[in-house]
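for ur thesis appendix - 4Fe-4S ferredoxin. copy paste whatever u need, i formatted it the way the template wanted (i think)
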Amino acid sequence: MRRRDFIKSAAIGLGGLLIPADKSDASMWERFFQKYFREMTSEEKKTVAKKLEKDYQDKTGVAINVRTTDSQPGVKFGYGLDLSRCIGCRRCIYACVTENNLSRKPQVQYITVLEFKNGEKWVSDLEESRKYYNHELVPEPGHFYMPVQCQQCANPPCVKVCPTKATWREPDGIVAIDYDWCIGCRYCMAACPYGARKFNWAEPTVPPDQFNPNTHYLGNRPKAKGHVEKCTFCIQRTRENPGKYPACVEICPVGARKFGNLLDPESEVSRCIETKRVFRLKEELNTNPSFFYFFS
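the 3d part is after this line
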């Protein structure tokens, strides 16, 4: 039995409480009583990661590396997006799906690219945009584009509503999820004003030959049905030493996406914030995003 199933059963009263019957299954019981990620010691994290690697290889046939790299001191990640340059090509979406082992069927995508006609109201009326467009060439004349994804808020509404504290904000600004503690209640999805959280309604599927084997416990490791997931600024890349760009930044053909350390005044994202016309999406909600839009 998975933890979220146990908690769901407990929530309806002791009469409906279900306890795993097969106590001989040591692996099942270890997963069932696995500690909350933030309560684990470094050694416990490594032990859990090794067990996950074995489980994933048995299930997928792929040798997957699960890292538990902590945030680095003096680092707070920030993201910038130049709306003057974005051409709506959606390459960021495809790179994100590949890098983060997102389900191909049913499809899960962290990034949504919105299309607007020139002159339309847009920041206040995102629901009126076109999420699904099909042009032979982009950008379509008379249109502009606005990608939306997790804003990595400093005051995240999703964290406040989680009943199991499965989601929290890391010191480097990434809003993370311990997927083994997610019970799939979807309160976080209702609370997020950016539509950034995605729910696995069915068992995620990734072809074995398309798996990215370099994963992080809090990031792109394989998920399960009933989990909510989200963008983590490619935590498996950005927490490396030296850190890499998120996949969506690296793939952008027009350089519209910027990423870096907000605490470093010389970083690319910091200089954009200082010198460009910057705004944050739905800033009036006091979510304090670490994601900045601007015009060059």
